[in-house]
Amino acid sequence: MNTTTITLQVEGMHCGSCGLLIDDTLEDVPGVSASATNARTGRTTVTLDPARVTPEQVIAAIGQAGNYTARWEQL
After folding, report:
1. Which of 36, 46, 51, 62 has the fewest CB atoms within 10 Å, counting from its CB?
2. Residues 72, 73, 74, 75: is their CA dihedral positive or negative?
3. Cα dihedral sign for 55, 61, 65, 70?
4. Residues in a beta bridge with 32
5. What integer pLDDT is reported at residue 74 of this predicted model?
6. How many other C-beta atoms are found inside a 10 Å radius of the C-beta of residue 63?
7. Among candidates 27, 32, 22, 14, which has minimal Cα distance to 66?
8. Region of 2 on the Ramachandran plot (φ > 0 left; ψ -120 to 50 alpha; else beta)
């Protein structure tokens, strides 16, 4: 499996539980192997298989998890 790691800026998180909800949601997305969300920094780092899932699908899943808005962060 070929993986890549992306970092997204996530708005709308208020506490650690928000981060856990996003991680749980993303780890259920086929093609996502890991998610690490930090509510304090407002970022999530996602390891994914680009042959199975796109960053846009990850962003959509974050939005479906709750009242969150994610965007690609250029580091």
Report:
1. 51
2. negative
3. positive
4. 48
5. 57
6. 15
7. 22
8. beta
Nearby residues of 50 by Cβ (< 8 Å), 6 or more positions away = 2, 3, 4, 31
Instruction: Tell the burial category of 17 from Cβ atoms under 10 Å away from its Cβ (0-12, 13-18, 19+).
Output: exposed
- Amino acid identity for residue 37 in this structure: T
pLDDT of residue 16: 92
Q: What is the pTM assigned to this prediction?
A: 0.91
Confidence of residue 61 (pLDDT cuts 50, 70, 90): very high
* Cβ(55)–Cβ(9) below 8 Å: no
